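tool_log.txt
---
The assistant was asked to compare two proteins side by side. It first ran the structure predictor on the initial sequence, then on the second. Raw inputs and outputs are pasted verbatim so the downstream comparison step can read them without reformatting.
(1)
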Amino acid sequence: MDDKAAIELAGVHKDFPSHGETVRAVRPTDLTVGRGEFFSLLGPSGCGKTTTMRMIAGFEQPTGGTVYLDGHDVTGVPPHRRDVNMVFQSYALFPHLDTYRNVAFGLEQRRTGRDEIRRRVGEMLEIVSLTGLEKRSPRELSGGQQQRVALARALVNRPRALLLDEPLGALDLQLRQQMQLELKRIQREVGITFVYVTHDQGEALTMSDRIAVMRSGRLEQLGTPREIYERPATRFVAGFIGTTNLLDGHAAGVADGTAVLTYGPGDRVLVPVPAGVREGDKLEVSVRPEKIDLSREEPTTAAGSVLSGLVTDVVYRGTSTSYTVTTAAGTDLVVFRQNAHSAEELAGPGDRVFLTWSPQNSYPIGVR
């Protein structure tokens, strides 16, 4: 048990009965969330992230394992006696109460003094940028404003942790992106631990201090957004977090911690590898599209990876242009080129091109 942790799961797992069988929704999981951390549970639908959050909140009892809040075992403690609050996608605002009364509701239930309620509600409305909207009913507020009211209502009681279950899912894309930054700002200001459930990779990367990527009830990888994106631990993580290119090949040689995969005359991929990788080992490599340079000119030097191929597709995406290239490695690679200076296409379908990148931008995700 970590006494410095806001939340700790020790061997927590959850089984559900289904048609006479037992389905394991969450496999035995050890997880620690630090105090004041913005922590995200990320994964596709059905991966167990919401069930994990509900076990933290007390809405689901784990089949086994222990849940700690601030170092105290709360595994059998009901939700209303756990010092955490939860915000849902539906917001669940009281339609008959105005903004002020919605936020003040929890304090009123605790019989907090009127002056204290006025002070704390005022502070919280200022933090969530709703000052001046105290008398508006939920139906008079936009989706983003309703979401802020739900946040303020959850935070005004000063819980030790706030659990958020896909709270931005009902918003349109532009507002969702705006609220991601707002959520992070609010979390920093109040200093409360946030645990955030989402299936949106960009959302998790934007807001989180750390991310737990889940799949089929299992924790696939835990790390900072940069670690998860730049150094994916598994093929699933590499493919789920953003866009990546996956290459397979056998090490034609290994020297000074770098393996070389060859695919034909002039085509090679250099991969930094851990100790123990030997010539002949099969490697699986992840390369992010923005790490690759594309040119119609054959490189004069070969200090890094070089693959030749034919362009099969070009897609203009506004800030960048995406090129799909069928390479000598026997797979299609995607390349992103920023349109910072010019949106003019470097090549078109059918053109022969050369792809180059630095060895450190090849990341091994599997060795066999």
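(2)
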Amino acid sequence: MNKLENKDLIIEVKNTGAELSRIYSKTLNKEFLWDGNKKFWGRHSPILFPIVGRLKDNETIIDEKTYSMNQHGFARDFDFSLIEKDQNSLTYKLASNNETKKYYPYKFELFIKYIINETEIKICWKVVNTDCNDIFFSIGAHPAFNVPFDKDTTIDNYYLNFKTRDEVSRYLLQGPFVCKNLKADSLKSIKLHPEIFKNDALIYDNVDEISISSTNSSTSIDVKFDNFPFVGIWSPYNKEDNTIAPFVCIEPWFGIADCLDSNKIFKNKLGVNQLSPNKTFEASYSITIN
């Protein structure tokens, strides 16, 4: 476990999965990241790589060979190396090896960097193609934020505000797979309540920022991810008592689950990224506590 601290924040990051595991506001004296209680969900903010979501039958075809891979890929379960640390940043690295090639044949280097600046955490991703051929991959974030995050509030006091670009579509799921997409009219704000997660995650494109706010407080969590192709919003739903877990995930993605009619060929996946030999893919998003 490694820690960064400034006058406003403390964050902690695990070597396993290079996973952000704590966001504590010293100013507000509050924990904002889910604690990983396995009763609801045993993770905090996993890195999704080299897939986002689920594959049909948990398998995919790469260069005519079938590979098995569980939901959201393997990077979240591998130990990363801490390769650089200074007062305000931590940088982790995972390189392809004999174990990763059991699931995914490509050679790659994956770098995850955390930077704190006042009340902002910036998370930077870099994927380097060290293979002789083009590689294909998805990558995504999955931070879970404590909701409610203020005392004497309930989920009904909270809402999501959106900043969007162009025309927004919503991607509908049948089970864990994308079945169709529909135009989302005037996506500005959504009131949080358990029923919106009855059919698993809400998934949109062309969204640049989502804020979690409360009608009873001036505190908010802002997640900014300019020009990401997709974002998921999720909390596990309990149909027996019509409740959700005490957290909500805001998940910026470069990738998405398999479509219902997928032919399993990896390079044909919706939202997959293609990277030439010796080239680098870079993206970043930020979390700000206001």
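---
observation on (2): The chain has one domain: 2-289. The radius of gyration is 19 Å.
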